[in-house]
Amino acid sequence: MKISSIKLEHTNPSLGPHEKITSIQLVAAEKHASKIDSFLQSSKINNTTSLFEYLEAVETNNKQLIDSVLNNAPKNVTNEGQEISNLFFSLESGVTVTLADVYRRFELSHFYPDFTSYMMENGEVNDDLSPFD
Questions:
Q1: Which of 51, 53, 54, 129 sees the fewest Cβ atoms within 10 Å?
Q2: On the CB side of 70, how many CA atoms lie within 13 Å of its CA?
């Protein structure tokens, strides 16, 4: 399994037409390969398995491991008006794995602030207006 890019998207859909979507995308270029690999191997998702193994499970449709990770998800809820952050992993196989509402629905070690800081420093930041515009 190989990553082609990682994107973190911040949105606030409750703002309707005033919503602003900010995304940070890190393309898996050779200069980022060791940092991305280290993040994937060292991060645990929902205290269950490595992020790498989870992404592989989604790519190969390993329902047992996927269910195990999802069953260990934190029980946090989104309050009205709160920002939602989604994390997307685009794999070279064409599969995209989405961790929707990543900060509330997943425990992902070494992600915030460690890897997000790296993404901010080395990725492409894009601020889009609402899809209603």
A1: 129
A2: 13
pLDDT, one tens digit for every residue, the chain (133 residues)? 899 999 999 988 766 777 788 999 999 999 999 999 999 999 999 999 999 999 999 999 999 999 999 999 998 776 666 788 999 999 999 999 999 999 999 999 999 888 999 999 999 999 875 454 4
* Cα–Cα distance, 56 to 54 (Å, whole number): 5
Strand, helix or coil for residue 41: helix
Angle at 61 between CA 93 and CA 38, to 5 degrees: 60
